[in-house]
Amino acid sequence: MTTEDLDAARLLLQRLGLRPEDLLSSTPGRGQPAPTFDDYIRQLQAAVPAGTLRAYGPYWRRIVQAWGDRRINTPSPLEVRELIEQTQRQAVVRRNSRGGRSAAEHMVGALRALYRQARADGFITTDTDPVAPIAKPRRLPSNRRALPDNLLKDINRIAATTGNDPDLDTLILRLHIETACRRAGALALRPMDLDPEQCLVHLHEKGGQDRWQPVSPTLMNALLRHCDRGAGDLGKTERLLRYKNGQPITGRRYDYLWNRIGKHLPWAATQQVTAHWLRHTTLTWVERHRGYAIARAFAGHTDMNGNVGATMTYVRASLHEVAEALSAMTGEPHPLAAKLGVENSEAA
Q1: By the 8 A CB rule, do 167 and 184 touch?
Q2: Domain boundaries 149-347, corresponding CATH code
Q3: C-alpha pair distances (Å), 176 with each of 45, 268, 318
Q4: Sheet strand arrangement including 194-195
Q5: Which long-range contacts (CB under 8 A, 24 or more apart) does 195-199 make?
Q6: I need a surface site. Which of 62, 86, 161, 169 has the fewest CB within 10 A?
C-alpha cells in the first residue's frame, strides 16, 4: 500500500467520523459515525443535573455555535485551545473581571464533561480525547474577605431601613451570617427543615450535600414567624423564604438587595460584596476564636483531600461544638451548647 493510499484512507475515515480502532471494536458507539456537537450536546443537556446545566450550558451553546455541524471526534487539541482562548478574550467585562480566566476555566470544564461522556459512550478513547492535553487555567485567589464589624453593621442597617421588604432582607442576612450558608442553601430552605426544639436548620447545598446547622433562638423564632407568609397555608415541603404576597423568592431578591446596599454604601458596590462575603466573615470569626476544625464543620466542608492532611480524619468537630461557637458569636444560649457544657463538666 502506497503513501497515497494511506492518505486517501485517512481522509475517508475522517469524513465518515471514524477512527481506525472503530473498525476493530464492537463496543456500542464504536463502528458508528460519531454524532455532531449539535445532536450530542442536545442529548447531554437533557441528561445532566440542573446544577451542571446552569454551570456549563452557556459554554455548550458556544461550542454548538462554533462546531455545531461537526462530529465530536474531529476537533484537534489545537482547535480546542483556540476555542478556549477565544472564550477568554470575548468574556463579558465586569468590575470584578479577572481577564476572562473564569470563562476559560468554565469552558475547559464544559469540554471535559462533554468528552468524559463521549468516552463512556465509546465515541472516543483516552488517547484521542482532544481535551486531555489541555490544562485548566489556574484559579486565582478569591478577592472576597471577612468584613469588619463596622461595615457589617452598615450593611444590616441599610437592609433594615430601605427597600420594599426590610423584614425579609434582614432575615436573609441574619440567616447567612449565623449559618455561613450559601445562597442556594437559603433558597432551598423549607418549613420541614426547621427543628425549633434544638434550634437547628437543615441546609441543602451544592453537590447534593446537606447538614444540620445550629441557629440562635432569635433566628429560629424569626423563621417560624416568616412561615406565616403565604396566607398561612405554607406547606412543609414548600420553600420558606417568601415575598409579602406569598410567592417564593429567587436569586433576583439577592440581586435587588445587594444593588440597593451598593447604592447606599459605595464601597460595597466597588468591591462587589455579595452574600458569599458573609460566609467568609462568619467562618473567619469562627476559625480565629474556635479553631480550624470547628470552622471546617461550621462551613459544612466534609470532603477529604490532600490539601487538609490526614489529621482532619481524627479531629472533626461535633455539632455541639459548632453550636457553642455560634452561641459565642451571637451571645445567645443554644440548647446544644448547653449540653456540651454539661458533658464537659461531667468529663472533668
Answers
A1: no
A2: 1.10.443.10
A3: 32, 17, 20
A4: 194-195, 200-204, 210-214
A5: 196/220, 196/224, 197/335, 198/335, 198/336, 199/323, 199/334, 199/335, 199/336
A6: 161
Asked if 71 and 98 count as a contact pair (C-beta separation under 8 A), the reply is no
pTM for the predicted model, two decimal places: 0.71
CA distance 182 to 301: 12
**Domain spans, the chain:** 3-120, 149-347
| CA-based end-to-end distance of the chain | 87
pLDDT score recorded for residue 342: 47
Q: In the structure grid, which three cell numbers stand for residue 296, read together?
A: 471546617
C-alpha to C-alpha distance for 238 and 328, rounded to whole angstroms = 32
Distance CA 60, CA 111 (A): 8
- 200 closest CA partner among 210, 213, 187: 213
CA-angle at 22, arms to 19 and 23, nearest 5°:
105
pLDDT, one tens digit per residue, over 294-339 is: 999 999 886 655 455 556 666 788 999 999 999 999 999 999 987 6
Pick from 101, 103, 100, 111: nearest CA to 134: 111
The answer to whether 239 and 189 are in contact (CB under 8 A) is yes
The cell numbers describing 7, all together, are 492518505
Average pLDDT value for residue range 31-52: 88
- Give bridge partners of residue 200 from the DSSP assignment: 195, 214
The residues near 283 (Cβ < 8 Å, ≥ 6 apart) are 146, 180, 295, 298, 299
Q: What whole-number distance in Å separates Cα of residue 103 and Cα of residue 85?
A: 10
Task: Note the pLDDT tens digit of each residue in 145-158.
Answer: 899 999 999 999 99
Q: Is the dihedral of CA 55, 56, 62, 64 positive or negative?
A: negative
What does each C-alpha distance from 19 to 11, 67, 124, 164 come to in angstroms? Answer: 10, 19, 9, 62
* Closest residue by Cα to residue 194 from 241, 247, 251: 241
User: 103 pLDDT band (50/70/90 cuts)?
Assistant: confident
Residue from 304, 282, 305 nearest 295 by CA: 282
Q: How far out from the chain centre does Cα 343 lie?
A: 37
